[in-house]
């Protein structure tokens, strides 16, 4: 059953005085003073004016040169195109500035967005944090890279642990430095379960290459009934196929297809984790509705289905653990390795063919 959610904090107009008071009381969120809205507007306006002056000066100089040449030749007709270009340049610049201001006003300042998200959290027994670095889930995306951070984080303030937001980490250095951005949802389960990953088909790359930061050995793929395999590829540890079928019943598979098909899903230890390759827009009520819907449908069913689970290799239900061979999936060859092996193999085959038929 879906929980009752109050979306008014994300929908209704915001009073500027409330945002100002909120900003004053929340500066410690970041550890440094934020630029005020007025300063931001002045800064953007100054850049726009500077742009107009620089471009206008260049175009005006060119226009003056054309006019002098035209006067020397006794006709101003050649100056008309340059004059039109000058007017169009100013018009486009002004239009861009107006559109930018309107978009900024529609989206609201950063503090207005924070105010809205915090109000939504307070109205729904959640806590909100715009920035965080303390995150230690065992899932796929959380064990890679450096400079890890969480943005726009929502956590349950009571009851079962629920956590969702945007997570980023950095890999490589220099020219190879890359920031990876994810949306995530984490829901705490009652029982420890074997490591299982549902790799969504819809967000894979070219030729079905997984978007996840880690690949798994193909002999761990478990085919399920119906059209589930056209939406997800399920990985589970070898000899844990029956355990996976115990958890992923047909009704849970149907809920996953209906509510989580665009996302990758991971079950690890006592956590159900959902990953999005695109960051969540958490000022959008629809985004919250979908994430909380996943928690209330997929999460609730997974909890019910696994509440009596016990790894028979442990042999004791009171020991809430999974045997070592089921705790983590075995990694597969990386895409880079596979490509290199293929290139080397192709080179040797071509060389052999050349020697044979030369």
Give the biggest beta sheet.
7 strands, antiparallel
- The percentage helix is 40-55%
**Termini gap:** 72 Å
**What string, H for helix and E for strand, traces the elements in order?**
HHHHHEEEEEEHHEHHH
Structural class: alpha+beta
Sheet-strand content, in percent, reads 15-25%
Record field, number of beta strands = 7
Rg estimate, integer Å: 28 Å
Mean pLDDT: 84
Number of domains: 2
Name the shape in a single word. Answer: extended
Runs in which pLDDT lies below 50 for 5 or more consecutive residues are 32-37
Annotation field: number of helices:
10
Fold and architecture overview:
This protein starts with 7 loop residues before the first helix and ends with a helix. The protein contains ten helices and seven strands. Strands 1, 2, 3, 4, 5, 6 and 7 form a seven-stranded antiparallel β-sheet that branches. The protein has 358 residues and is of the alpha+beta class. The radius of gyration is 28 Å and the shape is extended. The longest helix has 37 residues. Helix content is 45%, strand content 20%. It folds into two domains: 124 residues, no CATH class; 208 residues, no CATH class.
Name some characteristics of this structure.
20% strand; single chain; 10 helices; 358 residues; alpha+beta; 7 strands
Topology readout:
Elements (H helix, E strand, L loop, with lengths): L7 H4 L4 H10 L11 H37 L5 H29 L2 H14 L2 E7 L13 E11 L5 E10 L6 E23 L20 E2 L9 E4 L5 H7 L2 H11 L3 E13 L8 H22 L17 H4 L7 H23 L1
Antiparallel strand pairs: 1-2, 2-3, 3-4, 4-6, 4-7, 5-6
Helix pairs in contact: 3-4, 7-8
């Amino acid at each position: 059953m879906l929980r009752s959610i109050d979306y008014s904090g994300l929908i209704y107009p915001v009073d500027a005085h409330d945002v100002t008071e909120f900003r004053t009381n929340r500066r410690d969120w970041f550890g440094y003073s934020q630029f005020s809205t007025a300063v931001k507007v002045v800064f953007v306006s100054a850049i726009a004016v500077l742009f107009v002056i620089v471009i206008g000066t260049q175009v005006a100089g060119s226009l003056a040169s054309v006019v002098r040449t035209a006067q020397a030749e006794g006709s101003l007709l050649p100056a008309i195109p340059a004059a039109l270009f000058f007017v169009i340049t100013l018009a486009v610049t002004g239009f861009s500035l107006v559109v930018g201001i309107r978009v900024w006003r529609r989206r609201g300042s950063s503090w207005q967005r924070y105010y809205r998200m915090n109000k939504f959290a307070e109205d729904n027994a959640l806590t909100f944090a715009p920035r965080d670095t303390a995150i230690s889930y065992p899932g796929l995306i959380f064990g890679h890279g450096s400079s890890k951070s969480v943005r726009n984080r929502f956590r349950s303030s009571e009851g079962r642990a629920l956590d969702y937001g945007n997570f980023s980490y950095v890999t490589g250095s220099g020219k190879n430095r890359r920031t990876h951005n994810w949306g995530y949802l984490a829901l705490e389960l009652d029982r420890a379960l074997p490591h299982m990953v549902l790799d969504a088909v819809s967000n894979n790359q070219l030729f079905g290459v997984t978007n996840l930061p880690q690949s798994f050995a193909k002999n761990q793929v478990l085919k399920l009934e119906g059209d589930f395999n056209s939406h997800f590829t399920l990985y589970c540890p070898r000899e844990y196929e029956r355990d996976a079928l115990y958890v992923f019943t047909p009704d849970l598979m149907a809920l996953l297809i209906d509510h989580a098909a665009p996302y990758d899903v991971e079950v690890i230890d006592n956590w159900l984790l959902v990953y999005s390759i695109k960051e969540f827009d958490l000022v959008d009520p629809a985004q919250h509705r979908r994430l909380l819907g996943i928690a209330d449908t997929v999460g609730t069913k997974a909890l019910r289905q696994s509440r009596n689970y016990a790894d028979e290799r442990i042999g004791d239900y009171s020991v809430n653990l999974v045997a070592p061979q089921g705790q983590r999936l075995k990694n597969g060859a990386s895409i880079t390795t596979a490509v290199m092996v293929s290139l080397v193999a192709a080179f040797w085959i071509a060389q052999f063919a050349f020697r044979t038929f030369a």
